[in-house]
Write a structure and sequence with these properties.
With 464 residues, the protein is of the alpha/beta class. It is 33% helix and 21% strand. Strands 2-1-3-4-5 form a five-stranded parallel β-sheet, sandwiched between helices. Strands 16-17-18-20-19 form a five-stranded mixed beta barrel. A three-stranded parallel β-sheet has the order 6-9-12. Bound molecules: iron/sulfur cluster (SF4).
């Protein structure tokens, strides 16, 4: 056995489970990168590992249950468990730590965004290997570290935490106030990702439009040049960088502040994808007030019209809550009218469900569960009809598609996404068998395709 193989076989093995949203995923990527750099081997199983790390989600009750169940499973199958992530910051009924209360035998518990604390716990329980062959293991993305997404797309987290206090949300109590990453670091990571083969960069945070607010938009540096810590400057620089590599930049979690208007020309000029993920949550000013939503005073319908006038190709994705405490028939009707008028391209909707620790639990007028669910279903019927019509309008068009799946070089077809589809949350483009025998499809490459039909939330296309 060679030295390198021997080292890999004897390196301490850590089982890793990542639950939760893209922000939690980027925390997992940081921890995995550090583990790999220090010579630990990471695996996806509990059994046979020397220790297990579970990155948890603590947002809605179902996610809390899934996280607690996963910790329980890891304890049963392995016994040595470190817990990190949003659930780790959540208090239990007695005011102590919820995870410790439910699973007292875990080795350590940290909150989200705590790479160093997790590494300290790992070092205490499974000493760091000293092996020149394993230390500083190189990986495809250099300074950007290890990514858990397929190689051709990656999430880029630009800030941590949030300054808002939406009444249905406990994220600020779990992740703290907004802390923007230095713009130079963000751009350096983006460049490493593009250089490593990423063709689609998904910008994420809790509140992307607020990037830089906490540091008063201070001037940072990148490549020796001054650049403001602000969304417009960041989006422009990312777009220019992406262009060099023939890649896409997609913006998520953008709130409809007036400052977003200046991003639209970047979309029209092709630097950034004409796609905005804007979590509106509701339309009625009184509900938005009870929710304490950011930008609730903005005239959202007018803002959308102005965005579409500036960039007619714009696709808007959003999420909504139906049946928020106190929601009247009239307020719900306002939401349905808003959907019709705003023609939101992609919408998801939750029936309101109380999150323990959220301020909304103290609001009066909790609606019966059946009514909340009925309103969700009525909302989705409207949203799906809009979305289906929008998809139908694409039939006959030619679109650029990023290939996600193409067995056998796509000789029998494959699957991809257009600018209108973010991974995991939107539809896909089903690619038919190419007409030309010489045409191949490769994962992570773009192909042009003619849209020939629709299938549910998806498009069907002929690659050429
Ligand atoms: S903007 Fe509101 S919903 Fe989003 S993370 Fe902040 S408090 Fe939560």
């Amino acid at each position: 056995m060679s030295n390198a193989l021997h080292s890999a076989a004897s390196a301490p093995k850590i089982g890793f489970v990542s639950l939760g949203c893209p922000k939690a995923l980027t925390d997992s990527e940081l921890i995995l990168t550090q583990l790999s750099a220090e010579g630990y081997q990471t695996v996806k199983t509990f059994r046979g590992a020397d220790l297990v790390i579970v990155n948890t989600c603590g947002f809605i009750d179902d996610a809390v249950k899934e996280s607690l169940d996963t910790i329980g499973e890891a304890l049963t199958e392995n016994g040595k468990v470190i817990v990190t992530g949003c659930l780790g910051a959540k208090p239990g009924a007695d005011g102590g730590n919820l995870v410790r209360q439910m699973h007292p035998s875990v080795l350590a518990v940290t909150g989200p965004h705590a790479t160093q604390e997790v590494m300290d716990a790992v070092h205490r329980n499974l000493p760091k290997p000293h092996d020149p062959f394993m230390d500083l293991v190189p990986n495809a993305f250099g300074v950007a570290g290890i990514k858990l997404t397929p190689r051709h797309y990656a999430y880029l987290k630009i800030s941590e935490g949030c300054n808002h206090r939406c009444t249905f949300c406990i994220i600020p109590s779990l992740r703290g106030n907004l802390v923007s990453r230095p713009i130079g670091d963000v751009l350096t990571e983006a460049q490493a990702l593009f250089a490593g083969g990423v063709k689609e960069l998904l910008v994420v945070s809790q509140d992307t439009s607020a990037y830089g607010v906490d540091v008063q938009y201070r001037t940072g540096f990148w490549n020796g040049k001054p650049i403001k810590t602000r969304l417009f400057e960041l989006a422009q620089a990312l777009g220019e960088l992406a262009q060099e590599y023939g890649a896409w930049v997609r913006l998520h979690y953008v709130y409809p502040y007036p400052s977003v208007d200046e991003i639209l020309p970047l979309m029209t000029s092709g630097l950034v994808l004409p796609y905005l993920d804007v979590p509106f949550q509701h339309s009625h000013p009184n509900v938005l007030k009870r929710m304490k939503r950011p930008a609730s005073g903005e005239k959202n319908l007018e803002r959308i019209e102005c965005w579409r006038a500036a960039c007619p190709a714009l696709v808007i994705r959003s999420t909504f809550i139906a049946g928020f405490p106190g929601e009247t028939d009239e307020e719900f009707a306002h939401l349905l009218e808003f959907m019709q008028a705003a023609q939101i391209d992609r919408a998801g909707c939750f029936a309101y469900s109380p999150v323990s620790g959220a301020a909304a639990n103290d609001l009066s007028g909790m609606l019966p569960a059946e009514l909340r669910e009925e309103r969700r279903a009525r909302f989705m019927a409207v949203a799906e009809a809009i979305s289906a019509e929008k998809l139908r309008q694409r039939v006959g068009a030619t679109m650029q598609v990023l290939v996600d799946h193409a067995p056998g070089l796509g000789k029998k077809g494959g699957r991809g996404r257009s600018f209108a589809d973010a991974p995991e949350i939107d539809g896909v483009v089903e690619l038919l068998q190419p007409e030309k025998i010489s045409k191949t499809l490769k994962v992570g490459e773009f192909t042009k395709a003619r849209i020939v039909g629709t299938r549910g939330h998806d498009l069907v296309a002929q690659p050429f």
